[in-house]
Amino acid sequence: MRTEVDRLEKRIRERFVKAFATYHLLEDNDHVLIGLSGGKDSLCLLEMLAKRAKIDHPKFRVEAIHVRMENIAYETSTAYLEQFCRELDVPLHIVTTRFDSNPPAADSSLPTPHSLLKSKPPCFLCSWHRRKQLFNVAQELGCNKIALGHHQDDLLHTCLMNQFYQGRFDTMPALLKMRKMPLSIIRPLCMVEEADIQRYAELRGYEKQVKLCPYEKDSHRDDMRNLFDTIQQQNPEARHSLWNALVRAGKLVDES
């Protein structure tokens, strides 16, 4: 008889495989860099990709990167991430960076990265600099894809945020081909529900982050999470309806 963790792993794996087959996320000879934050989602993503990489088709390689931010007070045990990756035979690269929330104004009146970022909130700045490190290391390693641990709930919450705050129907795509560099962003957990990952992480004993980000609950995303939960209580099919709307609108693949 299958245990609960076996059943959960099977369900997550099936949706993971369905996602990369549906949206053509993985191909032979891919070299994938996994953004490993240390949270449950990225740990689950790494586990699924590492296990899948041991299967003959498609044949691809995986490595992981953990970006530490000096001036944001949250962290994950580096020793735990190293052990987690070692057990799955995944090379881990640890990069430390920082950002200035009040960068000096540029001499020129023309917009520059510093001047454009100057008024952005800490969450945006932290994310922007982490992504920059991901892109830099991916190109240094010769990777052609970056895998991020966003699950289905993340994509649906983003869709609601874009509608209510940006006035557009859009989300983070499962596949995004970058226009200015030979890289693609993939989200292999895009068809997996957060509740399944949460329970799987508990059963597998994933180690939690030592300190949580001080800005973690101070965002529109948390508001959308609460709103989405309320909607689902009123209509359990809301998840599938919103997902199908994204599919019909072609919002889950961006190859332009």
Overall pLDDT: 88
Radius of gyration: 19 Å
Low-confidence stretches are 103-112
**How many individual β-strands?**
7
Describe this structure in words.
With 256 residues, the protein is α/β, with parallel strands linked by helices. The chain has nine helices and seven strands; from the N terminus they run αβαβαβααβαββαααβ. It has a seven-stranded mixed sheet with strand order 3-2-1-4-6-5-7, sandwiched between helices. A hairpin with a 6-residue loop joins β5 and β6. The longest helix has 20 residues. The termini are far apart.
Keywords:
single chain; 256 residues; alpha/beta; 7-stranded mixed β-sheet; 9 helices
Summarize the structure.
This protein is an alpha/beta fold and 256 residues long. It is built from nine helices and seven strands; from the N terminus they run H-E-H-E-H-E-H-H-E-H-E-E-H-H-H-E.
Strand and helix map with partners:
Layout: H1 4-22, E1 30-35, H2 40-53, E2 60-69, H3 78-87, E3 92-97, H4 113-117, H5 122-141, E4 145-147, H6 152-166, E5 175-177, E6 184-186, H7 194-204, H8 220-234, H9 238-248, E7 253-254
